[in-house]
Write a structure and sequence with these properties.
It is built from 11 helices and 20 strands. With 430 residues, it is α/β, with parallel strands linked by helices. The chain has a 10-stranded mixed β-sheet, sandwiched between helices. Strands 14, 16, 17 and 18 form a 4-stranded mixed β-sheet that branches. The protein is globular. The relative contact order is 0.16. The structure holds guanosine-5'-diphosphate, 6-O-phosphoryl inosine monophosphate (IMO) and magnesium ion (MG). The site of 6-O-phosphoryl inosine monophosphate has 24 residues, from helix 4 and strand 10.
């Protein structure tokens, strides 16, 4: 029986999921996104060109592979068509191999407005949302008020839109949020809403399917499927650093609900992590660096948000968090990204434990932002050399091999892929 393999992030997002999904795509017939929305920014670089995808699965650059936007994803049609148009302008025909679930929920312009109003109301306790309307859209989904892709061709669509919009505007007014000068991708609310409706018309021309049936039938026919995660485990709504999380289940369990796949049909689970850590937006980050090493990671790793351009917070690799993520996801195989960013460091630290009052914490803390939590570090020798000449795992410097072995031993899983640069080709596989 064919099963669905999974690639998902083990940290706070931006691990390099886009790059690796693109690298793995030739092995699969279908790539399927299962959660999140345009808060994601997945970067793919090849042939001197760079693409950032937000809603479209990262297998889109391989024409023979079908790409499915699953029911668990939320879609802003305006952003989806901006992405499609930019791929089209780059000479591709992305509509050909893109399929969209009829059950995926729509992000309305007022969901984005509400996101901004709610964040603004939080003042200093802001989540640092990407302001793409993620929280309000999932709230309406679970509150059973949402509009779905399958509703757009229904008679009642405009009426339901107006009703939901009125509810949202009422809430925005109640929050006292003045949006007269607020911009949505550079557009005023009215201009954005007009574009959004144009995109709704265009959406009707895409291949809209019952993706749960399509995926299960494809598996029955012997097709191979890879599920692509967005965000990362530490941003999961149940297990991340709540409330500084996103509003979906980013873990393996999300594949089942986000694609309509039985747990019995989950195959190999790839967990992806950076050789260090980053986080964008607010919330606890035990290994965060505020010194020149943090700056060096940010500059060397070009750690600026793919969706918002915000500088990412940087810190050392966090093994307690990584082990917790591995447990939650049932990871089989690890993928280590951005090893090259550690090249210039003479010494590298890894957090092996969290301590509180001098004692190791058992298990993973309920509240990561507890000020008493202190990371305990092991220091390892750096390799202090470029990885440019490496074409296989056998070529890597001994100090990097040692670093990888240490992680493997601690986590109890093999690191089967090591990424040493942003390009498709800069990937070492065992
Ligand atoms: P995603 O959200 O998980 O797909 O990751 P992002 O695309 O948001 O962020 C990853 C960033 O790191 C992008 O700018 C990639 O081009 C870049 N990147 C990916 N792998 C590597 C790597 O091995 N080395 C370096 N230096 N950059 C990488
Ligand atoms: P990819 O798929 C990194 C963060 C935001 C914010 C919090 C909630 O590229 O890894 P939201 O807009 O979801 O309400 O924001 O989650 N966040 C991400 N951080 N990578 C992402 O996606 C993210 N998507 C959301 O910065 O702190
Ligand atoms: Mg990203």
């Amino acid at each position: 029986m064919m099963k669905v393999d999974v690639i998902l992030g083990l940290q706070w997002g931006d691990e390099g999921k886009g790059k690796i999904v693109d690298v793995f795509t030739p092995k699969y017939d279908i790539i399927a996104r299962f959660q999140g929305g345009p808060n994601a920014g997945h970067t793919i670089i090849f042939g001197g060109r760079k693409f950032v995808l937000h809603t479209i699965p990262s297998g889109i650059f391989h024409r023979e592979t079908l790409n499915v936007i699953g029911n668990g994803v939320i879609i802003d049609p305006f952003i989806l068509f901006k992405e499609l148009d930019s791929l089209r302008n780059a000479g591709m025909e992305p509509e050909e191999n893109l399929l969209v679930s009829r059950r995926a929920h729509l992000i309305l312009p007022t969901h984005r407005l509400l996101d901004a109003a709610l964040e603004s109301e939080k003042g200093t306790s802001k989540i640092g949302s990407t302001l793409k309307g993620i929280g309000p859209t999932y709230t309406d989904k679970y509150g059973r008020n949402g509009l779905r892709v399958g509703n757009v061709s229904e008679h009642s669509f405009n009426l339901r839109y107006e009703q939901l919009k009125a509810t949202h505007l009422e809430a925005v007014r109640h929050l006292g949020f003045d949006y007269s000068s607020h911009l949505f991708d550079g557009l005023t609310f009215d201009a954005y809403e007009a574009k959004w409706f144009e995109s709704i018309q265009r959406l009707k021309g895409l291949k809209i399917i019952d993706s749960e049936t399509f995926l299960n039938e494809s598996l029955d026919q012997g097709k191979s499927v890879l599920a692509e995660g967005a965000q990362g485990t530490m941003l999961d709504v149940d297990f991340g650093s709540y409330p500084f999380v996103t509003s979906s289940n980013t873990i393996t369990a999300g594949v089942c609900s986000g694609l309509g796949i039985s747990p019995r049909k989950i195959g190999k689970i790839y967990g992806i992590f950076k050789a260090y850590c980053t986080r964008v937006g607010s919330g606890p980050f035990p290994t965060e660096l505020f010194d020149s090493d943090g700056e060096k990671l940010r500059a060397g790793g070009n750690e600026f948000g793919s969706t918002t351009g915000r500088p990412r917070r940087c810190g050392w690799l966090d093994l307690p968090a990584l082990k917790y993520s591995v447990m939650l996801n049932g990871v089989d195989s690890l993928i280590m990204m951005k090893a090259d960013v550690l090249n210039p460091f003479p010494a590298i630290k890894i957090c092996t434990n969290y301590q509180s009052d001098g004692l190791n914490l058992p298990g993973f803390p309920f509240d990561l932002s507890d000020e008493k939590i202190q990371p305990e570090y092991k220091e390892m020798k750096g390799w202090d050399t470029t990885l440019d000449g490496c074409t296989s795992v056998n070529d890597i410097p001994e100090a990097l091999a040692e670093y990888i072995r240490f992680v493997e031993n601690e986590v109890g899983l093999p690191v089967d892929t090591v990424s040493i640069g942003p390009d498709r080709l800069q990937t070492l596989q065992r």
